[in-house]
User: Which sequence fits this backbone?
């Protein structure tokens, strides 16, 4: 299994632990990932507000480069996945639009032929790799670890840009994964709601209210951790959790895991290897619950 | 004490237009509706609105003639002239208010073909013109600042002798009963479709205004003229717009034949609605349908046209009948849709009850006579809504409020309602009474009627009324007690049902929407007149009124 | 088809009312909608159930409610497709708006927001005698927004309104866009400057968190969030950039166009304004914490290889617009 790897900006800057954890588990699982050379930011939906054409052009460029590699794209960020899916849908629905974009890419010698189907690691593990195939790699028991899912808006809506009709199992993918790795699922309605990251610098009060609402809710349900496939959600849910707790006038202290970190824990990697010490909210309680090294 | 110069009951297109006109006329105006204005049934109109624009070489006289002919010469031609003359300006006014009408290549208002009219003068917004107009009218209502009583339900009228003095209304949200004093009242309460089962009409269309007016002494007219729309969806009975045929769709029998050739070789699928419905019913009765339906075939229109101009009905076909009109014909059949009959008014909206006006589907001026042309209803609501609002405001400026003892009338009404709430639970629920009424109306007062069938329905009504007298209300609460509202509505429906059936029996001819197998021809000598219904000591009292003829002598009606 | 409908009920008429669940078991036709089931319950089983409904054909907007946790029109939702693994359909009143009784919510806050955006055409200048001349394309575009039936599904599921009731919300903002995008509204060029100014204020267009709930919930394809994005574009185009939201979008684009990837340190600085000392100071504790945890993005942001390709692409794309 080989993929064109699209890391996304945040895994290079504010969430480097995601990048290392991803490479670690893919390597162990035999999922070969070749980073797309010269990949550019997906736009995160923000650039699309100002200049949708430029955003779509940059994503088309990424798709074209992956086509050159002859490999399907692997993403590790809900936002990248969603934005790419929406861009792809626009280009597929309007051949004239795609032609216009290709006219801009031509100067670099690139052409997007319309075949890209970017997939998040979460979907790849379920659909391509198979959860059954994952089980033999799970050498550390996570029994007793209570984990709540948090998807991140862009990987659940709008459904038409995420191929949900053909893949309805994507809507419960995180829950399936949590159960497969042996953790206890803490389900809650807010799992598909918003973490507030996009409005962090626009309306901090509301952004923190969202963080506070979701993390405190699952904390009160007894969760030991929350897992998310989106590093932007992680930045808010983890990085701004202390501020959110202060705004709510209560303590929360809920560790937030990146998707590959949860899987990596079950695969026996150490806390250190997975970068869990980098988090803002202390992840020690998890270490204490599941043990330090590989078992 | 709540009091207004002009109180409008019903906040659909006619009601809101009347309210805006009355306020503009300087009256202390209020509008009252049992649902929020944008929930009114005007939003279900799909196809378009007619107008003859002179700068396109069209003439209001031609529109009027088409309307007169469409009415099978039962329409009052002075009223039709008023409507058709005013149509052009009304249309432009709506556009200036912001309606997003379809445009032609030059950016001017675009048209589509519609039933009963040899040239295209129907202006439209996709296939949801009613919704588009209604929402713009609501925007204008907001702009005008007219006071609005939302989710209030009128339970009785207050009269001093014949003269209207006010209304009693239930505030649905709280269950509190209020008296509102009014110098004039305009009924804009729409039709009575729910007394037929099935019907294209929404659940709220229960003939409230017609029932209230009738019980207050108003004359109802042409009640037998009930329109069965040719294309209602199999199963749910929901409307599939005439616009599909206007854009070129065909009607086919089970073998794929375009049977309209036999009945209206000239206008084909775009003959007047009564003609098309009868044709379909004849084919279905002869065994050329499937499951009581024939087919509407849009497959040759192409995906682009359907997505641009017929997107809503395509969705309905998919959602409610599992058929995508881009790829396959959809099953349709005639279904009860509209009532041409209603509260008799003059061309300014006045009824025979002093201070009471009416406009829109609940009124009968008469512009539609025996059969309404498609896209004339939206026009009717706006033209006569405006006129009645304006005239009511004018009349009110010269009137005083009538005094009455507010707390006494409220207490009396409260005890009447309490009596209903206190009834034992063993009576028939309102739903079953309505179902029996609806089934009977649809069986005997549909496209084809005869003496025996209609008499069967008329005989049923006293029994239904006595069951109604004991109808229990399960919900004893105050807040949002819809069970109580439905029970009250049923009373109005029964009165309308009686009026319709009695009038249909009385008219011993076939004209417009009334097609009797025992009197299959039109009989101008004896029946070129309106049939009226008033409430008498013994119940329904029938009468007649002459048809106003100005320019167009009645002739044979062929399409 | 046997179904179980679990309804969250509320009766304000009893003493100390609280919401409670009630489950009904009934048989409905295969083709029944959730609304059909609710009407059947109301008519045949329990007349005390209150809900708003009218047209049964997705045009009146009365029956918006949450089915299995998401806002839909009950009349447009098939019962057979709404059953969970135990054959239960879960029905609750629409979110955000206060519950009055059972499935009936108080729409007053909804209508209040609609009125706030001055929801009627305001052309400047003289009215033409006939119709305004306008392209069919522009009218079709607007009809996509006027298709809104004011059902409230978008408001019900809005994640911002869930934490902040002062937000104008998707329905009101989409309605506002219907006018800013109308060539007849505003000045001769169809620019509604005053509207855009008001909508750019706090709790307006920039407060949307871009979560797509409203796009997903809307039964008429209005896509309110997309309209809010268009409002943002319109506002930036007429120079209304003096707010964090606009600066954020503009800075993001500039930074990526310049180096190919996002400079996560510069972005927040440019968003709040380089001279906005209080805001910059508020970033310091976060920044310090990130630094001590090894999560601070590099101070010297690296451009992608051959970044001139990206810069050239940016210029080319802009020239074509």
Assistant:
């Amino acid at each position: 299994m080989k993929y064109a790897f699209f890391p996304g900006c945040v895994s290079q800057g504010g969430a480097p632990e995601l990048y290392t954890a991803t490479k670690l588990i893919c390597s162990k699982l035999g999922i070969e990932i070749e980073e797309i050379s010269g990949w550019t930011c997906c736009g995160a939906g923000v650039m699309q507000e100002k200049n949708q054409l430029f955003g779509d052009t940059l994503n088309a460029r990424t798709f074209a480069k992956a086509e050159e590699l002859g490999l399907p794209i692997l993403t590790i960020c809900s936002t990248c996945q969603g934005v790419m899916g929406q861009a792809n849908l626009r280009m597929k629905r309007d051949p004239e639009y795609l032609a216009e974009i290709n006219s801009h890419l031509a100067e670099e010698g690139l052409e997007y032929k319309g075949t890209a189907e970017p997939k998040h690691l979460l979907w790849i593990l379920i659909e391509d790799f198979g959860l059954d195939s994952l089980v033999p790699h799970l050498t550390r028991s996570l029994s007793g670890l209570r984990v709540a899912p948090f998807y991140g808006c862009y990987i659940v809506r709008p459904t038409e840009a995420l191929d949900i009709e053909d893949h309805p199992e994507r809507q419960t993918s995180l829950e399936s994964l949590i159960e497969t790795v042996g953790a206890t699922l803490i389900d809650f309605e807010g799992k598909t709601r918003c973490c507030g990251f996009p409005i962090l610098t626009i309306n901090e009060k509301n952004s923190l209210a969202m963080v506070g609402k979701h993390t405190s809710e699952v904390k009160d349900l007894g969760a030991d951790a929350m897992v998310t496939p989106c590093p932007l959600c992680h930045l808010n849910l983890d990085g701004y959790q202390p501020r959110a707790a202060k705004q709510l006038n209560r303590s929360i202290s809920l560790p937030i895991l990146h998707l590959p970190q949860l899987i990596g824990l079950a695969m026996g990697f150490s806390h250190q290897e997975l970068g869990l010490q980098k988090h803002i909210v202390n992840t020690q309680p998890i270490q204490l619950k599941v043990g330090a090294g590989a078992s | 004490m709540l009091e207004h110069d002009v109180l409008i009951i019903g906040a659909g297109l006619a009601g809101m237009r009347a309210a805006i006109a009355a306020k503009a006329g300087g009256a202390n105006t209020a509008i009252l509706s049992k649902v929020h204005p944008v929930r009114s049934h005007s939003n279900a109109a799909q196809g378009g609105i007619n107008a003859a624009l002179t700068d396109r070489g069209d003439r209001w006289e031609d529109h009027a003639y088409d309307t007169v002919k469409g009415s099978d010469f039962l329409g009052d031609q002075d009223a039709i002239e008023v409507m058709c003359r005013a149509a052009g300006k009304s249309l432009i006014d709506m556009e200036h208010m912001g309606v997003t009408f379809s445009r032609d290549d030059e950016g001017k208002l675009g048209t589509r073909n519609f039933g009963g009219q040899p040239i295209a003068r129907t202006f439209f917004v996709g296939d949801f013109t009613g919704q588009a107009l209604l929402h713009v009218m609501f925007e204008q209502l907001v702009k005008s600042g007219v006071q609005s009583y939302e989710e209030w339900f009128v339970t009785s009228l207050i009269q001093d002798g014949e003269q209207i003095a006010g209304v009693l209304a239930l505030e649905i949200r709280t269950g509190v009963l209020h008296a509102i004093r009014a110098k004039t009242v305009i009924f804009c309460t729409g039709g009575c479709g729910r007394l037929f089962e099935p019907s294209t009409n929404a659940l709220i269309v229960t003939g409230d205004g017609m029932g209230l007016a009738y019980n207050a002494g108003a004359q109802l007219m042409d009640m037998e003229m009930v329109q069965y729309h040719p294309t209602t969806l199999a199963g749910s009975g929901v409307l599939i717009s005439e616009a599909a045929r206007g854009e070129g769709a065909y009607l086919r029998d089970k073998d794929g034949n375009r049977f309209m050739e036999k009945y209206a070789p000239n206008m084909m699928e775009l003959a007047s609605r009564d003609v098309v419905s009868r044709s379909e019913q004849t084919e279905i009765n002869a065994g050329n349908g499937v499951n009581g339906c024939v087919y509407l075939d849009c497959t040759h229109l192409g995906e682009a046209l359907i997505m641009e101009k017929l997107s809503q009905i395509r969705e309905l076909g998919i959602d409610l009948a599992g058929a995508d009109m881009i790829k396959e014909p959809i099953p349709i059949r005639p279904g009860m849709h509209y009532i041409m009959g209603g509260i008799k008014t003059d061309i300014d909206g006045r009824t025979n009850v002093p201070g009471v006006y009416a406009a829109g589907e609940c009124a009968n001026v008469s512009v539609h006579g025996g059969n309404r042309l498609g896209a004339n209803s939206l026009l009717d609501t706006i033209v006569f809504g405006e006129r009645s609002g304006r005239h009511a405001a004018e009349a009110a400026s010269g009137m005083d409020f009538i005094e009455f003892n507010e707390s006494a009338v409220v207490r009396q009404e409260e005890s009447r309602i309490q009596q209903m709430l206190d009834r034992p639970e063993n009576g028939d629920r309102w739903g079953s009474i309505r179902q029996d009424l609806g089934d009977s109306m649809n069986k005997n007062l549909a496209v084809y009627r005869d003496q025996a069938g209609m008499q069967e329905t008329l005989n049923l009504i006293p029994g239904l009324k006595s069951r109604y007298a004991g109808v229990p209300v399960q919900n004893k609460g105050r807040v949002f007690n819809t069970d109580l509202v439905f029970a009250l509505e049923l009373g109005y429906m029964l009165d309308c049902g009686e009026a319709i059936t009695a009038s249909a029996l009385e008219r011993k001819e076939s004209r417009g929407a009334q097609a009797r197998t025992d009197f299959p021809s039109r009989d101008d000598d004896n029946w070129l007149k309106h049939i009226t219904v008033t409430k008498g000591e013994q119940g329904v009292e029938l009468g007649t009124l002459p048809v106003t003829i100005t320019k167009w002598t009645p002739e044979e009606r062929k399409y | 088809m046997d179904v179980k409908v679990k309804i969250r009920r509320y009766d304000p008429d009893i003493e100390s009312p609280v919401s409670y669940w009630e489950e009904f078991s009934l048989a409905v036709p295969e083709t029944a909608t959730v609304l059909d089931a609710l009407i059947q319950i109301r008519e045949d089983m329990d007349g005390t159930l209150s809900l708003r409904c009218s047209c049964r054909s997705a045009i009146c907007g009365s029956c918006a409610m949450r089915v299995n946790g998401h806002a839909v029109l009950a009349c447009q939702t098939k019962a057979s497709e709404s059953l969970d693994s135990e054959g239960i359909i879960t029905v609750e009143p629409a979110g955000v708006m206060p519950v009055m009784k059972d499935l009936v919510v108080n729409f007053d806050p909804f209508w209040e927001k609609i009125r706030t955006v001055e929801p009627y055409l305001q052309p400047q200048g003289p009215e033409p005698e006939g119709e305004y001349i306008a392209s069919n394309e522009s009218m079709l575009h607007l009809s996509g927004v006027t298709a809104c039936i004011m059902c409230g599904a978008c408001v019900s599921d809005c994640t911002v309104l869930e934490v902040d009731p002062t937000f104008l919300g998707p329905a009101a903002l989409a309605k506002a866009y219907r006018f800013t995008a109308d060539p007849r509204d505003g000045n001769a060029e169809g620019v509604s400057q005053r509207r855009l100014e008001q909508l750019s204020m706090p709790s307006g267009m920039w407060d949307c968190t871009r979560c797509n709930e409203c796009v997903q919930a809307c039964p008429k394809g209005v896509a309110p969030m997309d309209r809010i994005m268009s409002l943002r574009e319109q506002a930036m185009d007429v120079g209304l950039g003096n707010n964090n939201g606009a600066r954020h979008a503009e800075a993001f684009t500039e930074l990526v166009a310049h180096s190919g990837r996002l400079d996560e340190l510069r972005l927040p600085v440019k968003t709040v304004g380089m001279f906005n000392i209080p805001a910059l100071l508020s970033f310091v504790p976060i920044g310090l914490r990130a630094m001590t945890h090894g999560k601070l993005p590099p101070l010297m942001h690296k451009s992608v290889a051959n970044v001139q390709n990206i810069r050239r692409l940016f210029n080319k794309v802009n020239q074509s617009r």
